[in-house]
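hey m, so remember when u said the tokens were messed up on ur end? i reran from scratch. heres the input so u can diff it against urs
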Amino acid sequence: MPENSEIAAVLDPPAEAGADTRRAADSSERVYQVIRKMLVEFRLKPEQRINEVQLSRSLGVSRTPIREALNRLASEGFVFLTPNRGFFVRSLSTEGLLDLYELRSIIECAAFRLMCERASDEQIGQLRSYWDAIVEGYREQPPDLILAEDEGFHLLIAELSGNPEIVAQLNSINARIRFIRRIQIEHRTHDPAQVAAHSAIVDAAVRRDIEGGVNLLRNHIELTISATQEALKDVLLKVFVADNARPRRRRTPLATDKD
């Protein structure tokens, strides 16, 4: 669980001049940020059941903002809800990961092709404007912002395809790989060269170079797959070592153990 000073800094930030009393929505947002930080720092372990009562006590809030935050994190793929059992932290298993990335590649390449065929010059210009607005300093952004801006870039291509089903499918995939992608962004395998890759994809779109853009997208996603697999191996090792380093509680002898 987070330290008391950390909880206070997030749940009770310094009052701003003229600021209104914090409302329930603000409380839920701050609780969400604390729990999300605990998840990405693995203070809540993969597949661990989340104790809502304990969280409520440690954070000094009611169960309502806890439940709201957990529902939001479930929609983002960080936790999952099992009926009649509660919320659990997402597994870090690589099972199914390659299938999801393969599907992502197929969908995004199809979206790029349709965008080049259907979108107007003005619409293609939206992709250029989006990337130009964030490219400077992109590498130095906090991991959460990098992830959000990267998803926004790829979703915009899907939207410009003119096919809402492509957007829906990509949103679904993003929700299932977001937790793992967040881990990879903060890992040493995160490649700053993706900035150049995004710029090249935009240039191909402006030229309506379908084959060139499709190849760039496919290679970009394939590099992300290998980097994510390496990041997951390191994280699983870290979690495994930490669990085994904890002192084990000695079993209290039962009466039947005595001579």
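this time it looks ok to me. The beta strands are 79-82, 86-89. if urs says something different then somethings off w ur setup not the seq
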